[in-house]
Amino acid sequence: MASAYQQQVLQQALEQAVLQEVQNAEAQVDQKLHELNSMNTEEIEEIEAIRRRRIEFLKKSKERKQIGHGEYSEIGGTGNEKEFFDAAKTSDKMVCHFYRNGSPRCEIVDKHLSELAVKHLGTRFVKLNAEKAPFLAERLRIIFLPTICCVIKGKVKDYIVGFDDLGGVDDFKTELLEWRLGMAEVLDYNGNLDGPGSTQQKSKSGFVGGSKIRGRAVIDSDSDDD
Fold it and tell me: Where are the alpha helices (DSSP H) in 67-191?
């Protein structure tokens, strides 16, 4: 058991450590105050503007997270097609993958969109089972799966139908889909406008704008492998 003298020494050491921490903190505050006092009005205003932008960014990020941004999620379902329109109204930019269960190519799209959802927080990324939403699929003239629907401010602006706009191959890179969505202006794309690396295969259609959709029957693109 520690003696009274040992306890006193320990207490003094603890108090000294606390005092040193306080002094260090005060020194840091004094340094910051000195730096602020040496700044001119324009520099202070610039710092305040940066701080306001940061606060606004954090606020928007929180709001977007609450409505599903930052993740790739499923919406809709049997009798709940209204969720698509609600989501389109809530987010200025939305990417919706119309898929079919068991389709290998739809699973490929899932993998790429899951990565892009985390990267592009300004866009909401969702998927919807076309077979469980026949009214919506018919209304949007979805006849070929997978189809990626690009929605901006509540209106469908573009479609990516199958993989033709992605080189016509199954092993396309995520960056190529990111570029294609950027060309549709449904996400903020800062890469090469000629395409990632400018060496990817061009679309069979050459890709200018959206894709033309005909008919009403839903077709699975995996059936075209033969």
Answer: 82-90, 104-119, 134-139, 174-183
pLDDT along the chain (226 residues), means of 10: 66 74 80 72 72 64 62 77 87 94 95 95 93 90 94 94 94 95 92 65 40 37 48
Q: Determine if the peptide bond prior to 196 is cis (ω within 30°).
A: no
Q: What is the pLDDT of residue 219?
A: 41
How far apart CA 113 and CA 162 sit, in angstroms, is 14
Distances (CA, A) of 133 to 82, 98, 105, 150: 10, 9, 19, 17
For 171, the token pair is 């092993």
Q: Please state the length of the chain.
A: 226
What pLDDT does 56 receive?
65
d(C-alpha 175, C-alpha 179), whole Å: 6
Quickly list H helices, 67-103: 82-90
Nearest Cα residue to 99 out of 82, 87, 111: 111
Task: Identify the three-state secondary structure at position 158.
Answer: strand
Q: Tokens representing 124?
A: 């909401």
The whole-angstrom separation of Cα 116 and Cα 123 is 9
Burial class (CB in 10 A: 0-12, 13-18, 19+), 109: buried
- Three-state SS for 96? strand
Whether the Cβ atoms of residue 85 and residue 149 lie closer than 8 Å to each other? no
